[in-house]
Amino acid sequence: MKANERLVYSASEKVTGWRLFIKTILARSYPRIIGQQREKSWIFFEIFMPMLAVSAYVYVYRAIGAPEEYVGFVVVGGAMTAFWMNVLWSMSSQLYWEKETGNLALYIMAPNSMMAVLLGMAMGGMVATTIRALAIIVLGTLMFQVQFTVTSFTQLFAVFFLAMTALYGMGMMSASLFLLLSREAWHLSNLAQEPVYLVSGFYFPIKSFNFWVAAAASFIPLTLGLDAMRQLIFPSGAALGFLNVNVEITVLVILCVVFLIGAKFLLDYMEKLAIREGRITENRR
Amino acid sequence: MSNYAIETKDLGRIYKIRGNKKESQIRKELIALQDVNLTVERGELFGLLGPNGAGKTTLIKILTTLLAPTSGWARVAEHDVIQAPNLVRPRINMVSGGESSGYGLLTVRENLWMFSQFYGMPSKEANQRIVELLTMVGLEDRIHTKSSDLSTGLRQKMNIVRGFLTNPEVLFLDEPTLGLDVGASRDVRKLIRGWLDADKNRTLLLTTHYMVEAEELCDRVAIINKGRVLACDTPANLKRDLQRDAIFEIETSPLNGLTDKMLAEQAEVKKAALTETDGGAKLELVLVDESALATVINILTQKNIKVMRFTKREPTLEDVFMERVGQRMEDVEKEEAPNESK
């Protein structure tokens, strides 16, 4: 029978180990890198809307006669909010939504590593959000004539890379936490959004805070990432910096390690608990 | 190599259900599965037949490594699902009826490709197989359609292709034709049978509450209710036990207070189920022999109930279910539904 002949498959050479890990990361990043660009509404919601907030801060700073570098701080901060929104809504809450759609059970049942799935989400989110962040920086720079003076490209790249790794590591860790909290995840995301805008100093130097408030805010990787970037791309940034750039890089390295190990630990714990208590697909239990 | 694709021994699962905030200390227990002993041979299409809430999905979740049993053990493709899930997972796949997996922004091909990558399939092979399988279920013209634009039935066809795509040794289909129209269900059943017949090392476990589906597709069927396996055999053997009984369907005028209990009290009546219809009623009877029909007709006459039509028919799996459970599956589901909503 013709149909049956087509269903006879020769032995497939499926990859395992690290090659499966890489394949999983690439496959899971695909919906974010390619799929998310298909809904053009992102141009409005993720570029135009943040630009409104950026503009408001710029006009306030200009109205009160703040140094012109503050306009640059706002543009860079506005671009970085895109990453925070992405981590909050598309990383932390993501496993919960994956559970609701049934994808989570399929991820766990497949031979891939769940850590690779999370890394894929993170990588895809990071690439897609970088496009949005770059658009905000370009628009903001053109609209408000921002001047950048990069003192060290190497350090700037290291800070950005480490801040993103630590930030998305935090998102991966909180994804398991939010899943355990189930429906409360949505409220937690709402709760975390605005306070982090404030304490991370998206639109002003965190040096303005008391030392201990700024130190506590430094647990959120964007705080030190932004502070270090401001120091590296604006002439007066160093004077307004919270800590020395090298110290901030060291702290970011520590945060990367802590969050990534934490993500792995919590993911394993979540998976065991979910299988033991039937929480992966049994929403009522 | 063991000849069994699936084995379970005294398998049980108890859920602890949390009460509301006031009774947060009180944890109720729900027995979802109890002492399930099953063996499924390689190459077999095995059906789990039971009403909603019978424990079918719980059993599938245990066998697919998504849920731990609270007692007993289970082996799939020769590996223990709890001790060695990493050896089980590359060999299995699962599709559930009505699932909304994948991402709406991706096309059918992209969604299927993504899932194939989680199993380590080479992209070229995956893409080739996606086209072949979509053609077989009549979905080839939708290969570049975003999955959010698919109807429920077409989406389910895509999910079914996802299950076959990775060529698993053991495939679990949980109510695969749920919500599909007659034509789509037929296409899916054809693919299921074709896939299994193409390679004798493939095994398929299917859960359904459609009797006809179980009867048409399955080599063997286990009837499951309230977490227990009540019978397990080929559909023919299960029905053979009922061959000596006489099974009648009688259409009557309104029942005038007659209940199925009144009929079942008669020694010659093994099972009776009454359903009220528009302007009348339908009686389904399992009698010890044909002569017992006279007793039933007498009772109907005494109650002033007119017989409009009656037919004698061959036993079906529905009759087997009624014989084993004491109720029709439809009635069990009606009873369970209010309990679930509490």
Question: How would you explain this protein's 3D organization?
Answer:
The complex is a heterodimer of chains A (285) and B (342). Chain A has 13 helices and no strands. Chain A starts with a helix and ends in an 8-residue tail after the last helix. Chain A has helices at 2-6, 17-33, 41-63, 69-92, 94-101, 103-109, 114-144, 153-181, 184-199, 211-217, 221-233, 237-240, 245-277. Chain A is 76% helix and 0% strand. Chain A is mostly helical and 285 residues long. Chain B is α/β, with parallel strands linked by helices and 342 residues long. Chain B has helices at 56-63, 85-88, 108-117, 123-136, 152-165, 182-197, 211-217, 235-243, 260-264, 292-302, 317-325, 329-341; strands at 4-18, 27-41, 45-49, 71-76, 79-80, 92-96, 170-174, 203-208, 220-225, 228-233, 246-252, 269-277, 280-287, 307-313. Chain B has a 6-stranded mixed β-sheet with strand order 6-7-8-3-9-10, sandwiched between helices.
Strand content of chain A: under 5%
What's the total count of β strands of chain A?
Answer: 0
Largest interface by Cβ-Cβ < 8 Å: A-B, 48 and 50 residues
Classify the helix fraction of chain B into a percent range.
25-40%
Helix and strand content put the structural class of chain B at alpha/beta
- Runs of chain A in which pLDDT lies below 50 for 5 or more consecutive residues are none
Total strands of chain B: 14
Distance between the termini of chain B: 47 Å
Quick take:
With 285 residues, chain A is mainly alpha-helical. Chain A is 76% helix and 0% strand. Chain B is α/β, with parallel strands linked by helices and 342 residues long.
Outline the secondary-structure elements.
The complex is a heterodimer of chains A (about 280) and B (about 350).
Chain A: H1 2-6, H2 17-33, H3 41-63, H4 69-92, H5 94-101, H6 103-109, H7 114-144, H8 153-181, H9 184-199, H10 211-217, H11 221-233, H12 237-240, H13 245-277
Chain B: E1 4-18, E2 27-41, E3 45-49, H1 56-63, E4 71-76, E5 79-80, H2 85-88, E6 92-96, H3 108-117, H4 123-136, H5 152-165, E7 170-174, H6 182-197, E8 203-208, H7 211-217, E9 220-225, E10 228-233, H8 235-243, E11 246-252, H9 260-264, E12 269-277, E13 280-287, H10 292-302, E14 307-313, H11 317-325, H12 329-341
Parallel strand pairs in B: 3-8, 3-9, 6-7, 7-8
Antiparallel strand pairs in B: 1-2, 1-4, 4-5, 9-10, 11-13, 11-14, 12-13
Helix pairs in contact in B: 3-4, 3-5, 4-5, 8-11
